[in-house]
Amino acid sequence: MDDEEARTRLLDAAEALFYAEGIQAVGMDRIRAESGVPLKRLYRLFPAKEALVAGYLERRDRRWTGSLRAAVTAAPADPVAAVFDWLAAWFSEPGFRGCAFLNAYGELGAGGPAAVLDPVRRHKAELRALLADALPPGPDRGELAEQLLILVEGATAVAALAPGPEPARRAAATAAALLRAADGRAG
Predict the structure, then answer these.
(1) CATH number given to 1-47
(2) pTM metric for this prediction
(3) Which residues form the HTH tetR-type domain (predicted)?
(4) pLDDT tens digits, residue range 87-104?
């Protein structure tokens, strides 16, 4: 097995275990056992657990944000509705356990290692930018993106407690009302 395959196997194991059980509940020896990568190679590729956690979050961000962006791009007539449709599908996936980034932040807190908290903050900034891009141009675009971010995060937190599409559907209805109100103010 070369380093790229070992890295992929380690990140696959880390993602499955950290997302399902939590970062602090899973040790490096468990990651080694699940991945089949020798401990010496694990520590050569990821010298500390925080490097592995950061790698897991960065990879998850690329995949998650890329998938959401593709859904929004594919729905030019109503990109905001596409956000909530995508969330409804995600909330219905087997094993859904909420937002990996908020889960990591919740476990580690504001004083956690920067190597881990930086990907969390970048992810939320990327999500905010994606939401702004989904909105029509206008003077309230930044404020509306912030409000949509709160709806997305709130729906995700509610769905973590009761998985299924309903939190996304309720948030979508709220987003539509918010956009209608903003359009009325602009007109």
Answers:
(1) 1.10.10
(2) 0.92
(3) 4-64
(4) 999 999 999 999 999 999
